[in-house]
Amino acid sequence: MTITERYAEFAARETRGVSPTYERLSAAVAGDDELVARLGALPPDKQQPNLLFGVVRFLGGPVHDPAAFRAWTLTHWPAIEPELRARATQTNEPGRCAVLLPILAALPQPLALLEVGAAAGLCLYPDRYAYRYGDHTLGTGAPVLDCAATGLVPPATRPRVVWRAGLDLNPLDVTAPADVAWLDALIWPEHQHRRARLRAAAAVAAADPPLLVRGDLVDDLPALAARAPAGATLVVLHTSVLYQVPRPRREAFAELVTALPGHWVANEAPEVLDRAGLPAPPDDALYNVLSLDGRPLAWTRSHGQAMTWFG
Questions:
Q1: Fold exhibited by the domain 94-309
Q2: What single DSSP character describes residue 14?
Q3: d(Cα 61, Cα 68) in Å, to the nearest integer?
Q4: Which 8-state DSSP code applies to residue 172?
Q5: DSSP assignment, residue 81?
């Protein structure tokens, strides 16, 4: 997929009806030869819309007007380019716990959670958040995670988590203002509810920080998994992470995690893990596939706002 196609698809499938600001920006970048050329000088995993827009916001640039965005980005490219090369999209969206919960609540309890690509570890607290699936609520306190769930009865209980750990090439610290500012910059401009949710989830994590280890998802996973306590069900989970990993490493990771004791919960784009025999998605929006131990179970939206169960 070319850079132009990538930005056009982001506008049409992921941001339409969800973020008018980023829909306009993506369409503008797709048609801008000079911006496309600048992006073309970067490695493919550094060309993605979320990363570019997040870096511009992090550096204080404008995103609401495409013309102002273009002028600012071209002028400040010497500052933007090193940030693009150094950073990754670490959209640590706690709302994704709402689509993970039906699987996690049904596994043998208690759980030892190990998240790959954990960023600041905000998805390691499914037992601490409250949930709202239509008229069905579960738990109290903040944040409250809303999810439109189709095709399943929402869980009646939250999981019991006795150990939580994360693996990331660049772990983030929820007690460090600069790290929280980067997470904030990755939230789409109109999504004030997600911004409030991030702050509430960060407060939960800061009160009881997870074990976060800097490392590679293949080379360093076995050693971290071995630290999980005996008597707990090990669950290796990840969501919207593997698209950033080259295919040979994805395949090595899948082989490795399948051989570990416990369970593997993945929430990734359908082409990332070659899930065969999938039913048609609910519509032409961008969806992830939620799977347990390699078996697809549901279509999910990228921020956990909706899921359609088919497993």
A1: Rossmann fold (3.40.50)
A2: I
A3: 9
A4: -
A5: H
